[in-house]
Amino acid sequence: IFLKAYKHKPDFFSTGEATLYLFNSGAQQLFEVKAFHEERRSWFIGQTVQQDGRLLFVTPMDPLFLILYYLIKADKEQGKFQPLDQVVLDPEYPSCPLLLKCADVKQYIQHVTEEKEIGSQKFHKYSQEKTLKWLKKKVNQTVKALKSNNISVGERVLASTFINSKQITDAQEDYVRYAHGLISEYIPEDLSKELLKYLGLPELRSPAPEPPLKKRKLSDVPVEPGEDYTKFNSDNLKTKKVS
């Protein structure tokens, strides 16, 4: 099923991108589907060859990340409290209301919204303050998972930011920064920057290029030839004919 979600690509920060997700039976759990693809790869299935050699990875995903897209959009357009079923709507992706059926969504929606209750109906409005607090917990959980699995992130942080290794000395900061990068793949760019500040991480900047080295001057004494080579230019020198 295709749903609209934020992905960390320049063209989709404000509009969202169509991405493949999977629901289990009853739409109680959401899964993200990622494809690992290499050229000239096929599968042998029984006595046949399947040309599509992609390897699909299916991983559980928190539906709040996808719901965030619609909450932020509604807040920018209307800026008022609304029922969730009026917010999570999209004519291009009619299956998106299934997100509200996922287990515990209505319980955990308070982590990213302000809530009002009138009679028996609840109304919600996007809260950036609550969202940043919730995202910080996600970052901390990611850091814990990285450490428990003995995953080194220092070199990955350097590679992704193209900075001098001398600028990073704190291993804990490396983990937090790397986890922030992973979480940022599912949120808009402006929210990612706010989260960076909320985590207390300075924005990394590439160092200014160093000026080219000047050629070293070895001596002030002019270099002169040790032998007069002009003598070889004499008109008197002639090639003798061998008889």
Automatic annotation (TrEMBL):
Transmembrane residue ranges: none
Keywords for this protein: Nucleus
Ribonuclease H2 subunit B wHTH domain sequence ranges: 65-195
Keyword Nucleus: yes
Main location: nucleus
InterPro entries linked: RNase_H2_suB, RNase_H2_suB_wHTH, Rnh202_N
Keyword field contains Nucleus: yes
UniProt similarity note: Belongs to the RNase H2 subunit B family.
Task performed by this protein: Non catalytic subunit of RNase H2, an endonuclease that specifically degrades the RNA of RNA:DNA hybrids. Participates in DNA replication, possibly by mediating the removal of lagging-strand Okazaki fragment RNA primers during DNA replication. Mediates the excision of single ribonucleotides from DNA:RNA duplexes.
Quaternary structure annotation from Swiss-Prot or TrEMBL: The RNase H2 complex is a heterotrimer composed of the catalytic subunit RNASEH2A and the non-catalytic subunits RNASEH2B and RNASEH2C.
UniProt name for this protein: Ribonuclease H2 subunit B
Organism per entry: Poecile atricapillus (Black-capped chickadee)
The gene coding this protein: Rnaseh2b
